[in-house]
C-alpha cells in the first residue's frame, strides 16, 4: 500500500506493516516552525517504506521544488489467518531525490532555439523486440542457463522459424544490438558456469568508445536482468 499526505513530517501512518507513506509540508510552514533552542529545518517531506525505512526530504538552498522518484516491485502478501501467501502486491520504495532549480534567464523569447534531437538508436518497434528478447534471456540466465544458447541462436536469426511464421528478419540496427546482448551473455557463461556478477560488472563499466546502439542494448539488458534478480 502506498499513500501520500500533506502535513508535518513525522506521520506514523508508515508504521502499518507493508505500507509506504509520503508526507509533505509547506516550506513556509517549516521555516516558521522554530522549537525553542533549535534552528528552523529545511525538511519539507518524509518518506517511509518497509525496504529502506525512514528518509527525510529537505529543500536545498536555491531549489524551488523536489522531485521524488519511486520504484515498485512485486512482493508476497501474507496473512495471519492461515491463508496461503500470494504474489499480488506491489511494494513501493524511494529511489532518488532531485532538487528542482530554475534554469538561466533568457533575455527574450527570440533567443530560444529548438534543440536538435539525436537520431534514435532504434525505432519503437525495434526497442520493443530487443526488450522482449532481453527479458527472456535474463530469465533463462537466472533460472535455466542451459536454455541461453538456444535462445541466442533464435534471437540472432540463425534458424528458419521467422520465415516459417512470416516474421520479417531483424533490421541491421536490431541485429547489431542483439549481437551485443549475445556477446555479453556468452561472456557470463564461462566454461559452462554461470557468473552473474561478471555480467553485472561488465554492464556497469564505462565504455567511452561504444556507440549509441551498444549503449542502449547494455541498458536494456541491465534493466531486465536487475528486474529478474530482485524477484
Structure explained in plain terms:
By secondary structure, this protein is α+β, with helices and mostly antiparallel strands. It contains 7 helices and 8 strands. The protein folds into 2 domains: 2-100, no CATH class; 124-230, no CATH class. It is extended, with a radius of gyration of 24 Å. The mean pLDDT is 75.
Task: Explain the layout of strands and helices.
Layout: E1 2-6, E2 20-24, H1 27-32, E3 43-49, E4 53-58, E5 65-77, E6 86-100, H2 124-143, H3 148-155, H4 161-165, H5 172-188, E7 189-190, E8 193-194, H6 196-204, H7 212-230
Parallel strand pairs: 1-2
Antiparallel strand pairs: 2-3, 3-4, 5-6, 7-8
Short account of what is shown:
This protein is an alpha+beta fold. It is built from seven helices and eight strands; from the N terminus they run ββαββββααααββαα.
Overview features:
24% strand, extended, 7 helices, four-stranded mixed sheet, 2 domains, alpha+beta
Write down the domain tally.
Answer: 2
Low-confidence stretches: none
The beta-strand count equals 8
Average pLDDT taken over every residue:
75
Listing every helix as H and every strand as E from the N terminus to the C terminus, the arrangement reads EEHEEEEHHHHEEHH
**Number of helical segments with 4 or more residues:** 7
Can you list the strand order of the major beta sheet? 1-2-3-4
The largest sheet, given as strand count, sense and whether it forms a barrel, is: 4 strands, mixed
Radius of gyration: 24 Å
Tell me what portion of residues adopts beta-strand conformation: 15-25%
Structural class determined from secondary elements:
alpha+beta
Compute the separation of the termini in Å: 18 Å
The portion of residues assigned to helices is 25-40%
Mass-distribution shape: extended
Amino acid at each position: 500500500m502506498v499513500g501520500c499526505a500533506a502535513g508535518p513530517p513525522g506521520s506514523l501512518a508508515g508504521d502499518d506493516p507493508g505500507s509506504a507513506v509520503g508526507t509533505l509540508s509547506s516550506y513556509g510552514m517549516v521555516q516558521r516552525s522554530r522549537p525553542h533552542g533549535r534552528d528552523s529545518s529545511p525538511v519539507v517531506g518524509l518518506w517511509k517504506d518497509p525496504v529502506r525505512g525512514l528518509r527525510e526530504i529537505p529543500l536545498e538552498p536555491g531549489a524551488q521544488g523536489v522531485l521524488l522518484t519511486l520504484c515498485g516491485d512485486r512482493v508476497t502478501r501474507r496473512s495471519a489467518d492461515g491463508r496461503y501467501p500470494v504474489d499480488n502486491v506491489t511494494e513501493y520504495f524511494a529511489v532518488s531525490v532531485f532538487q528542482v532549480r530554475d534554469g538561466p534567464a533568457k533575455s527574450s523569447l527570440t533567443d530560444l532555439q529548438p534543440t536538435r534531437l539525436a537520431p534514435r538508436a532504434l525505432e519503437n518497434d525495434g526497442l520493443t523486440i530487443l526488450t522482449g528478447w532481453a527479458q527472456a534471456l535474463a530469465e533463462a540466465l537466472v533460472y535455466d542457463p542451459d536454455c541461453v544458447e538456444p535462445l541466442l541462436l533464435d534471437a540472432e536469426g540463425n534458424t528458419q522459424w521467422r520465415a516459417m511464421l512470416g516474421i520479417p528478419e531483424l533490421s541491421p540496427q536490431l541485429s547489431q544490438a542483439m549481437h551485443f546482448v549475445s556477446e555479453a551473455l556468452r561472456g557470463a557463461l564461462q566454461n559452462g558456469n554461470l557468473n552473474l556478477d561478471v555480467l553485472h560488472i561488465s554492464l556497469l563499466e564505462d565504455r567511452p568508445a561504444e556507440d549509441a546502439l551498444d549503449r542502449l542494448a547494455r541498458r536494456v539488458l541491465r534493466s531486465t536482468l536487475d528486474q529478474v534478480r530482485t524477484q
